[in-house]
Amino acid sequence: MKAKTVLWLWLVLFSSAAWSLDASLSQYKLGSGDVIKVTVFGQPDLSLTTKLPNHGVINYPFLGDLSVIGLTGAELEAKLYAGLKGDYLIEPSVSVTVIDYRPFFIDGEVKRPGGYPYQPGLSVDKAAALAGGYTERASKTKIFIRRENESGQQEQLSARSTDVVLPGDIVTVQQSFF
Known about the structure:
By secondary structure, the chain is of the alpha+beta class. It is built from three helices and ten strands; from the N terminus they run αββββαβββαβββ. The protein has a five-stranded mixed β-sheet with strand order 7-6-10-8-9, covered by helices on one side. Strands 2-1-5 form a three-stranded antiparallel β-sheet, with helices on one face.
């Protein structure tokens, strides 16, 4: 009976962690440097792949300049659907996919600080591994992540080595005193 309880708790915790990662990426807001693919089923002239520029505006056929920075993929799909429906298409089937996420950055007590391509499922430990690993003086308890919040403001969060890193995050590993 005890083994079943442990297994059940493990499954609940694992599925919660996987769900929270999926939830954070489903609410992912597009930003400068992301590469997106817009597909309109049956309309190759309306499909495109583009890297989002710093100013956050893309030029889309028939609709002109669209501001996309800060939108989720679902919000951009809805915006394109509303713009294309009626005047151009009867019932457009629009899909927006992030092909390449903007990079994350890691600095402080890692061997090769810098920017690295984001990979879904990235934790602080995995980010440090991409940066050559922690230095001998790295603190595993003084790790901070600077991340843009819902209102577009940068905030600094205290992090653990197992916490999730998102595209555009800046991870700082402080020096240990002992």
